[in-house]
């Protein structure tokens, strides 16, 4: 509760009235720590109307901790405030998300990848590199996180689908196209999924390279098996 102490000291010690941005930070801190109900209570203490950012912070925490019950209630609130926000739509609403794309620049040329990419001219070599990395990652203790795969298919097919995410394709291409030790820099238009995030930590340690990723939320600096975001993004 160190964050709560700082938050309380704003008013009690420094006479600073917390703004909606401060409340958003506190909801994010409590939610990430697993105190979802406390985070919801924090929102109820706000003097003004909670912003979409506040509710989205709590919704993100529900996703991290797998609390579907609270998450569904928050998603409904998000839709009430912002009907166009697709992050709050449930599966049966059939909302269409923006397709995920990842970009990497190699030798002054920008290469674009999508999930299960079939277009890139080096795709056969890229898939071979991913297969090599998968073996090394498995030996290092990597376990695929298939819960983000929504397709109603067998577990083995889910693992294959994860292997062909655009981030992984871009990284594999970068590894085979640049000199050893060269940092890799990629950009993705959506949030990096949990499995890709874990994979990048393993890959950074296995190949001893820095991997810098800019996703829709923030920059991630992967080095020696650790990410700068400390797994909160």
Automatic annotation (TrEMBL):
One Pfam family, short name: DYW_deaminase
Domain DYW: 141-233
Gene3D superfamilies linked: Tetratricopeptide repeat domain (1.25.40.10)
Protein name per Swiss-Prot or TrEMBL: DYW domain-containing protein
Protein's organism: Sphagnum jensenii
Organism lineage string: Eukaryota, Viridiplantae, Streptophyta, Embryophyta, Bryophyta
